[in-house]
Amino acid sequence: MVKFVQAEADQTGYSRENVLIHHTYLTSRTSPEKLIIKSPFLRLLGTKFPEIKNTSDSTMTSRSLEGKPSLINFWYTSCPPCIAEIPVLNGFQNKYGNDIHFIAITFESREVVDHFLESNHFGFKMHTGEWDLQKELHIDSYPA
């Protein structure tokens, strides 16, 4: 039985001190093409995810992602909306951890991310230094 996951984030408020984002996640047996109305990532549906080159996990390959859905989050440590959504993403991982791959990708260095993670729990597998991958996928706004 094939299952699809759709995630939607609606940024409903932003100020210098606060970011309020409403997240909705649903699983469905309906193909994503019928669920997603407008997204800059529609062009990527049905394509193979590029290889992640700068991974600390030697088992992490595009092939290792096959067999179950993957939630891939592009973020960076000084992005207020990225930081604000981390507790929601961690909650989603706690709920669906065995059924979905959870991956966080950033252009920042391992040292910057490790320093951030000392005071902020983010349970996803971290992949750092992935500037070329983000350019290849045309990731130019965050979080994505």
Low-confidence stretches: none
Radius of gyration: 15 Å
Say how many strands there are.
5
Q: Tell me the strand percentage band.
A: 15-25%
Protein structure class: alpha/beta
Mean of all residue-level pLDDT scores: 76
Q: For the report, how would you describe the main beta sheet?
A: 3 strands, parallel
Side-by-side strand order of the widest sheet: 3-4-5
Offer a few descriptive terms:
about 140 residues; alpha/beta
Question: What's a concise summary of this model?
Answer:
The protein is built from 4 helices and 5 strands; from the N terminus they run ββαβαβαβα. The protein has 144 residues and is α/β, with parallel strands linked by helices.
Q: What can you see in these coordinates?
A:
The chain has 144 residues and is α/β, with parallel strands linked by helices. The chain has helices at 32-35, 80-96, 110-117, 131-136, and strands spanning 4-14, 19-28, 70-74, 101-105, 125-127. Strands 3-4-5 form a three-stranded parallel sheet, with no helix packed on it. The protein has a two-stranded antiparallel sheet with strand order 1-2. β1 (4-14) and β2 (19-28) form a beta hairpin. The chain is globular and about 40 Å long. The two termini are 28 Å apart. The mean pLDDT is 76.
